[in-house]
UniProtKB/TrEMBL annotation:
Annotated protein name in UniProt: Rrf2 family transcriptional regulator
Superkingdom of origin organism: Bacteria
Gene Ontology cellular component terms for the protein in this record: cytosol
InterPro entries: TR_Rrf2-type_CS, Tscrpt_reg_Rrf2, WH-like_DNA-bd_sf, WH_DNA-bd_sf
Molecular function GO labels: DNA-binding transcription factor activity
Lineage per the UniProt record: Bacteria, Bacillati, Actinomycetota, Actinomycetes, Propionibacteriales
């Protein structure tokens, strides 16, 4: 499975905003900090706001901040805000097609492929759900934390 660059951007933005301690950080400051095109960053920020991960305050003194405590924002919240909630596996029921099509009576339960893939998807989601912005923040090096905090004060 491949996630878009927006997921990486979203997680880093949340880590930066966690260092702002509830203060507002301008979109331009975030874009400059990470060397990202502001227009593309805006699209990811809009998704994070719509999902309730971030708050956006308009106006000249406005900016972005985490919508809740970093201990409550999970990596899954961020991934689903950017990528959506759809499973990474889509079963098309090919076992029912072609010259080797299964008898309908054999297709009452999910096939083994679908079951295995959904179990893997659930495990992946659980691993993301188990890690919060606060968890990742606590593992940042002091120098990264200082750089994030410096940008957050701009």
């Amino acid at each position: 499975m491949t996630m878009s660059a927006g997921v990486e951007w979203g997680v880093h933005v949340c880590l930066l905003l966690a260092q702002a301690n509830g203060g507002l950080v301008r979109r331009r400051a975030i874009a400059d900090h990470f060397g990202l095109p502001e227009a593309y960053l805006a699209k990811q920020l809009t998704k994070l706001v719509a999902a309730g991960v971030l708050d956006a305050v308009p106006g000249p003194a406005g900016g972005y901040r985490l919508a809740s405590d970093p201990k409550r924002i999970t990596l899954l919240n961020i991934v689903e805000a950017i990528e959506g909630t759809r499973s990474s596996f889509v079963c098309t029921e090919i076992r029912r097609q072609g010259t080797g099509a299964a008898d309908p009576s054999e297709c009452v339960a999910d096939c083994t492929v679908k079951s295995a893939m959904l179990a893997a998807d659930n495990a992946w989601r659980q691993a993301l759900r188990a890690q919060t912005v606060n968890d990742l923040s606590s593992r940042l090096s002091d120098s990264v934390r200082r750089r994030y905090a410096s940008t957050a004060r701009r």
